[in-house]
Design goal:
The complex is a heterodimer of chains A (351) and B (296). With 351 residues, chain A is mostly helical. Chain A has helices at 2-50, 64-97, 100-103, 110-147, 162-181, 184-206, 264-270, 272-278, 293-304, 320-348; strands at 214-219, 226-228, 236-238, 248-256, 308-315. In chain A, the strands form 2 sheets. A 3-stranded antiparallel β-sheet of chain A has the order 1-5-4, with no helix packed on it. Chain A has a two-stranded antiparallel sheet with strand order 2-3. Chain B is an alpha/beta fold. Chain B has 9 helices and 13 strands. In chain B, the strands form 3 sheets. Chain B has a 6-stranded mixed β-sheet, sandwiched between helices. Chain B has a 4-stranded antiparallel β-sheet with strand order 11-12-10-13. Classes of the chains: A mainly alpha (351), B alpha/beta (296).
Chain lengths: 351, 296
Amino acid sequence: MIRLSLRQFRAQGIVAGVLLVVFAVLFAITGPHLAHLYDVASKAQAACIASANCGRVTVNIGHLDKFLELIGTALVVVPALVGAFWGAPLVAREFENGTQRLAWTQSVTRTRWLAVKLAVAGTASIAVTGLLSLMVTWWSSPLDGFRSNRFGIGIFGERNIVPIGYAAFGFALGVVAGLLIRRTLPAMAATLGAFLAVRLAFSFNVRPWLLSPLHLSQALNPATMGFGRVNAGPDTLMPAPPNLPNAWIYSTRIVDDGGHSLTQSVLTATCPQLNAIAFPPPVSSGGTPPPDLRDTVIDCATKISAKYHEAVTYQPGSRYWALQWYEMSIYLAAAVALAGFAFWWVRRRAS
Amino acid sequence: MTAVLEAVGLGKRYRRHWALRECTLEVPAGRVVGLVGQNGAGKTTLLHLAVGLLEPTAGHIGVLGGRPAETPMQLGRVGFVAQDTPLYAGLSVAEHLRLGGWMNPRWDAGIARRRVTQLGLDPRQRAGKMSGGQRAQLALTLAIAKRPELLVLDEPVASLDPLARREFLQHLMEAVADDDISVVLSSHLVADLERVCDYLIVLAGSRVQLAGDVEELLACHHRLIGARREPANLPSGQEVIEATHTDRQSTLLIRSDGPIYDPAWTVEQVGLEDLVLAYMRRAGAADPTSYRGGGA
């Protein structure tokens, strides 16, 4: 049975192998160059921070940024593709061609038939995605270290071990979709849709609550206070992000001792001149030009800081691996549950 | 001798439609059994139940004294050629034989190779590019080389031209003649089965209408032709299967345990095809709703 599964998987396996080799070669060629660029940049940044007047150090990685984009999307889509191209047809193609009637009447029980198929293609799914993630993690480590943004929405799920969980889940999802829909193309489409929906919903709504976040209170620093708006909200004071290296910062709010956020009415009452800056009178009306924004904001923040402080909600950088393991385990558990359902279905329902 | 196929109150329902119901059968070993019925009569359902591709909704089915497909051992004892002879289109003839070997511990590679050579199949040819006749022959080879005790074939010749049909059935008979293999094969044409079967099951309207040894069936059915009269006054032990009347004449197809003595009737032999058709028509008249066709 295992040899039949290997034979049926041969073409897909070869394609995956070739793609992996292509990626490996690209990584090997460009990796050292990228590491060198970021080595230089890190030294420049260290020197900058040591100096009194430091702006911002940027790195120009030239044509590599296109490649960076490519591998970024690659790791997002690979588990989805694994589900759609390896998972969904695994059983659906047999139903579509009626070959399950051939396979299930040989001297091999359906349970074993499914177990071997799942083992062969599932192992390949996990191995391919795992290897790709390993290469991407290695390749982009100088860059990730420099940006210290490991929790970024497009980065956390594309490094280290979580892609393995995604691949297992995507594959199992595809198998179940194929079992229920019994036709390859619709099953592939359903797999892609369902996988992306789960992945997005999880990233935005589940991952932040896997571990309860920490809270930090600190006095407002008028010198680094910003002024602006979030989306379509009103203009307001915006504290600079706290100095928490590698942390995942959920929110930075201005609150009083009772925990109440700074309201717009309090802000305008305390700093009436801010409004003049935010909504300057039309120039044609001949009004005086607004006073300097920077000074006004600092002045305002100083007044506000008498009663208000900064409250930060965040995950410390030290929890990175715990979150990686949690998320991977949840996806793996979901994959196991889906596989269990597939076994039940093949034994009891399918024909 | 134990029955190769034994069903008691067997039924299979798809949602609200019964594809097969109240099926009670006992097929002795060593027979070539023809399963005949129109499309949608429940032939495939019965065969799929027998090879374990389906689970019964009601009743019980036993094959070679075991539950279908329950163990690898049980699976190995039954060879199956499904309708339209499904094969892996991307795999070659040789690869199909290899997979047969991988998946069946009792596989006889010698028989498989011999048959492929004898049939003139190119081992490197992919199944997807073969003709219907070649596919059927390869599927039969896979089923036979498994060395089953029971061989089940679902409409094996339906898609073949008359020449390939005859050739296929001939090969089938040669293959099962040497070993003591029991065979069940289905068709919607009696003519296909007449030449090869010595046991017949007629399915119509999801029910078994008739089952028995072909010679016995032929011996106990008669066609009576005589002056027009209502069939009600026949002696006991005679059952009318079908009655047709013209203005002056009545023709009855009856089942009778004993010989016919009534001199008013001219008694004729009934051919297998007429016999089967009479039972099918009777079932259709009794339960017209069951002629839905499709699926099963």
